[in-house]
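Re-running the complex after MR caught last week's input typo. The corrected sequence lines follow. Everything else is unchanged.
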Amino acid sequence: MEEVTTNMTKRFNGLVAMGAAGLLAVAGAAPATAQDTTSIDMIAAEYADMAPYFDDLAARFMEANPDVEVAVQVVSWNDIYDVINTRVAAGDPPDIMNLNYFANFAADGLLYTAEEIVSAETLEGIIPAFRDNSKYDGVEYAVPDLASDRLFFYNADVLEAAGVEPPATWSEMLTVCEAIQENVPGVFPYGLMFGPEEAQAEFIMWTGGNGGRVFDGENWLINSAENLETLEFLQTLQDNGCTPPSIGTTNRTDGAWPLFAEGVVAMVNGSNFFPGTLESTFESDVNWGVTEVPANDGKESITLGVQDYFYAFKKDGNQEAVQKFLTFLYEPDNYAGFLDAAGGFVPATISAGEAMSSDPVQAPFIAALPSAVFYPSDQAQWPAVQGAMQQNLGTAFSGADKQQVLDEIQAVATGE
Amino acid sequence: MTQSPTAKEPATPRRRRLPNLGPLPWIGPALLLIFGVVLWPTFEMLRTSALDISISGISRGLTGLTNYQNLFGNPDLPGIMIRTLVWVGVVVVLTILISLALAALLNAAFPGRRFVRWALIVPWAASVVMTATIWRWMLDTFYGIINRILYDLGLIPTFVNEWLGVPDVAIIWLMFVAIFVSLPFTTYVILAGMQSIPQDIYEAAKVDGATGWNRYRSITLPLLRPALLVASIINMINVYNSFPVIWAMTEGGPGSQTDTTTTFMYKLAFRFQDIGQAAAMSVVNFTVILLFVLLYLRVVDWRRA
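Corrected-run output:
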């Protein structure tokens, strides 16, 4: 609430100042003053309660740079897509954006290149693999802020009571499920989530272990035979009663995760920050372990890599201020504070990455990164494809024809 | 010579125009309002529906009817259209029937009537989003109180039971909540209609020996016709446009299996990132609402006559 008030006050002061400036200009009383300060605004993603961090960062930055005024607005993941869509469509984008896609804006020529928004030194300090994922049409338009990948979480006590090891393959998945049903009744073996929050992630992980991909670097492959086979396998899980009933509407934060935290669900997919969420948000005492996502027999398991970005919209006279602020954010101490505030992500800078690989909770996630399949967020069509996957994949479990569901999403991707 | 009369002529209208401008300061604000919040947005909506808009929301110029072709080629649309029709039909008809009964009850004199009347206003006074959100959690698969009650009564075998994730079941619950929030307004419109029926007609009928049911059928219902028509049409418009009930409870999901054209319009813009197609959908919605409004105006006219 306090945050809102300060922002409102700032905006109000801004309006008053503008009005006053207008009056002065009309009266011609004041000499035309050169604009001393540049104001920039940033929309930051709410990984956790980020506002205190950004308040402090902006305050320290403005003290060191009196000629720049920075306002950071932290927006929740539920609303951030609506906010950015509305602002860009209205022709009033923020100066700096923090989101998990950028390519559509780059395709419309709205963005500065990465070189233009941080210092060369900062850019060189970013992990090269992440920089490769920040290009559109061969040009780097975004700077990675952090990344995450996913592993398969299990409730060690439930598996022990059922007398089984965590599953590594699809057939083991079915056996483990049966064992849990027999020995630990009342517990759902797996929290499959195909609700609109995370359907795309759940799907890419499972189908990745079947050799299925959404995009191969050149073509969209959403309606492939492998992907169909994956949906059919997951349907088998549902039919066997291995999952809670409402797959198509089960989300992550208000669905499968709290169920896992309460011990109602024995296995679930989770990301780097899930251990932190289990501890602080859910105050769960579940004895959990992590392993790779089960793959189809004879196939390789993958992890889903998700990389988020900072990028900046071209506006008259904002480039210098943007570059100053982002470069300031990437200074090792400030960036460490950012990671700390976000809680449990893979860092995007080389130095912070080295520091984190000794963290026992994060180590398995960092070890899994080489097998990561990333979202094709360098494709301009991706936001629409992601939206279609989030909305429609779930219907495959409430009666819709699976091939048709995949065909429709493929049509969104190829624009046919 | 012949010119002089013609040259004089404009002078008269000019003089006449001045007094015509007289009311302008009074109706000016209203005109501005109509232009600003009705005409201009309508024009923008029509224009947007003919634009090619990128995923970022940037216009790439006119595209003719492409957005409409995409919309009518959308495989989800036929199901959504049919659902919208059923949705409006069922919710309005049931709302009217239940309201008739409630109004009859509230029209009768009984101790505590004032409190019942107050209680009926509550669903109206409460925010629809709030009501819908409460129902969404009452119907939750795992934590819902409804499951708990049914389980404790021994009606369902386990307390984990899905309501809103099954499209056919979810739509019934959506209708239930939509009826629940429509009842107060409708009941009060009908109640007002009932109280405007002169008592002496009933007394005359009583003297002639008409039974209670006969009096209701031959006097109350026919004289309620205007109130019923107005209530029906206003409800049709409200229910057709109803966004919060569906959005707060299912977001139209799974997929678009509980969407109506109104929620689908929003979803096209903000989930499928297709603003052009969403604008085309809103033009279609606008046309339907316009038809309802014309119908309403005719009914009001008919009442006056």
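None of the earlier attempt is carried over here. Strands of chain B lie at 51-53, 59-62. The longest strand of chain B covers residues 59-62.
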